[in-house]
Amino acid sequence: MEKQIVGVANSKGGTGKSTIAIHLACCALETGVNVSLVDTDAQGSVKDWANVRPDSMETPNVVCNNDPYSIHVTIERLEDELIVVDSPAGLSEITGEVLGLSDLVLVPIMPSVLDLWGVGEFERVLEEQAQEGLEVVLVTSKYDHASTLSEELAEYLSEEYPEYSHLEYGICDRVAYKRQMGQGQTVLEGNDARAKNEVRRLYHDINDLLHE
Question: Which InterPro entries does the entry link to (predicted)?
Answer without folding.
Answer: CobQ/CobB/MinD/ParA_Nub-bd_dom, DNA_Partitioning_ATPase, P-loop_NTPase
